[in-house]
Amino acid sequence: MRVALGIVLAALLTGACGGAEHELVGVRRDPAPRVDAVALPDVSRDGDPFTLRAPADGTLLVYFGYTNCPDVCPTTLANVRAALGELGDDADRVDVAMVTVDPGRDTDVLASYVQAFVPDAHALATDDGTALRTVADSFGVFYDVATSDDGEVDVAHTSALFAVDDTGTLALTWLFAHDAVTSADDLAADIGQLLEEAA
Which H or E run includes 187? Predict the structure, then answer.
């Protein structure tokens, strides 16, 4: 799989300090963009529109990927699951959503795929290419799905995990360079810091 870092790194100024207790591993963008302008169908909830915004006083984790991804996607989701386990009761304040960049193959299987990692996760899939592109662009996500002459599907996408606050603003980005995903321990510490800020 080709993984592209489609986020403009100039907009990612630096990892921000979350106070004396914890220095964030993820990075904050300045200015932080709003990402909740377009709702996507949640195929795990009968296609109900889902707005990319955290619950009140909580955090929403958003991942763009696809179910046939052989490496980064399952590793990232496994780390999210482990991080939520480390948070204990605070995990109840965290929502998780996966947006497929390959809806042609994923729509029917996305819910079972992502919920195998996080049972109550939201599975977002749309055949509206404009809506998907608009949402991806708001996060700074690049993706491309191409089919070769022999029928092989090649998917490229930005390898990153995102946290969104309860105003629909992007709060934190974890970028995964060269398929090296952020550890569950680091994710848990960062998410815990975001939850403290949201309280």
Answer: helix 184-198
